[in-house]
Amino acid sequence: MSTLSQTKRCEGLTLAELAVLALIAGILGLLLFLRLTDGRERGGLNRANCLSNLKQIGLAIAMYAQDNENRCPMDATTPTLVGSLRLLTNFVTAARVVHCLGDSRRQVRKMDDWAEVTAKNVGYSYVPNLIWKADTNAIVALDRIYATKAGSPWPSDGNHRGVGGNILFSDGRVAWHAKLPSALTNKDGREIVLSP
After folding, report:
1. Cα(77)–Cα(17) distance, integer angstroms
2. Torsion, Cα of 99, 111, 120, 132 (10° steps)
3. How many Cα atoms sit within 13 Å of 154 on the Cβ side?
4. Span 101-158, pLDDT tens digits
5. Are 121 and 99 in contact (CB under 8 A)?
6. Among 138, 139, 109, 137, residue whose Cα is nearest residue 122
7. What is the distance between the alpha carbons of residues 102 and 152, in angstroms, rounded to a whole number?
8. Distance in angstroms (rounded) separating the CA atoms of residues 176 and 165
9. How many CA atoms lie within 13 A of 22 on its CB side?
């Protein structure tokens, strides 16, 4: 061994050993950082996917309403969530748009056919018996929620863990809200929401 490498060895670690340790520490730090931010990042991706789904649902409802005297889909006098959403089959081919990837309570699987849509895999709530664009602030569909009162929070086990939710308004826009900005009411002013 040369005198130089013996000196470096006596002082502690060689430069190569220090570089390896720094690399290992960097990798461990990166893994820890990714683990800590994984839930938040996934939530952000799920939120964007959810917003896209609600936009597609909004477009389908607009097309349905255009063919049905501006009425939003409603399968019966006493409407059901799945039945009302299935009325969109002629306007949306991908049934998976009714499933939010962030909804941990729903069965996570891709739905290729509307016959596969059930209350167990729908991730959104729906306000039935509305007129499309009659009131541009009327809420038509939104992340799964059970409350109907203005100011209500999303459930902690909801699509985005209670931090907020995407809302489809009757003018077609979709926006994120921490709490319900207005009551969920039908065209007659009755508070109602169909939730899975």
Report:
1. 75
2. 50
3. 23
4. 887 776 656 677 888 898 888 999 999 999 998 778 899 999 999 999 999 999 988 8
5. yes
6. 109
7. 20
8. 6
9. 7
